[in-house]
Each structure stands twice: as C-alpha cells, then as structure tokens.
Description:
Blueprint: H1 21-45, H2 53-59, H3 66-82, H4 94-104, H5 107-120, E1 125-131, E2 137-143, E3 154-160, H6 167-170, H7 174-181, H8 187-195
Antiparallel strand pairs: 1-2, 1-3
Helix pairs in contact: 1-3, 2-3
Bound molecules: manganese (II) ion.
Amino acid sequence: xxxxxxxxxxxKDALEPHISARTIEFHYGKQFRLHINNLNALxxxxxxxxVDLTTLIKESVDCSGVLFxxxxxxxxxxxxxxxxxxxxxxxxEGNLFSAINKTFGSFEEFKNRFDKAAISLFGxxxxxxxxxxxxxxxITQELNAGNPIRKNYKPLxxxxxxxxxxxLDYQCRRVDYISNFWNVLDWNVIEKRIEx
Length: 196
Ligand code: MN
C-alpha cells in the first residue's frame, strides 16, 4: 500500500448539521477510500514503488484516464477533508486576508464570487481558490478530478461539488450545501497553505 486513507481530524458526526455523519461515512469512508484503493492497485500494476502525486497530476497527458482521475481524486479529497473542522477559524487574517482584499476588493466579494463558481459549475467537479505566481489569487472551476496545479497555480481552498459531497444531506440544493460549507471551513488551514 503506497497511499493510505489519511486520519480524519474530527469525529464523523462532528460537522453536523452542516455535513452529516452519513455523508462523511460515504464520502470519506467509501468514496475517498475507493480512490486510494484504485490508485494503489494501478501503481502496483505498474510495478513501481513510489510516485509523487503532484508530479503525476501535473504531467499526465491523459486527463480522462483512470490513473489521472484516481490520483487527482486522492489529492483533491485529502485537500478537501484536511480543511474542514467542527471548530473552524471563521475569518482569514494576515497575508491571506491581504491577498483576498487585494484581488477581490473585500472578503464578502471573494465569497460571492467563490459561491458563484461553486454553484454554476455544471456537473461534477470542484471550485478552487488558488494563488498565481504574481501573488494574486484566482477562483477557478475544475471539472471532474481537475486540479489547478495543472495551470501552475498554488491551490489554497477547494469546495467539492460532486453530488456525492452533498446529495445525502441536501439533495439537489447545492446552494445550501455551499452556504453551510463556510461554517466548517477552517481558515487556519488555508492560512498555513499560503505561507507554505
Ligand atoms: Mn468528493
């Protein structure tokens, strides 16, 4: 086993009522685990013993292939679950807050634009906040297993808008999932990502 399911930083019911224990059971316990298992099986079949996930995602030629999709889904889910907390820091500070203000004018405007990206993404994928080489931030929509590292951006935050992320709790109300997502997003984690 090259890749293992990372430890969840909270109990599976800790994000309720925003994200239910049942959603965590399926999304983290089954969906994420499935991508880990698939990726390990693929790597095992290639008879290699180590793989750098970021390089693999960045340099894959076939972005609809099974290797890219599972590798990127492992990366994306690790990133998604790591930033969630039952006791989150609710507002960014420091360099991150400055960068948000510089790019978007205000925190509220950033949230409006991010919401719009997450809500309007048609089908499965992720909304991302990333940092560009010039220090400015950018919001992007990536379909399916897409990841902004392929565009040479540094990912800071992601919202998984695959139906499996919210359907058990919100059915077709993706808007409600996204508005509650902010209640469990830990800005402390995002601040560390921009400093890293
Ligand atoms: Mn997911």
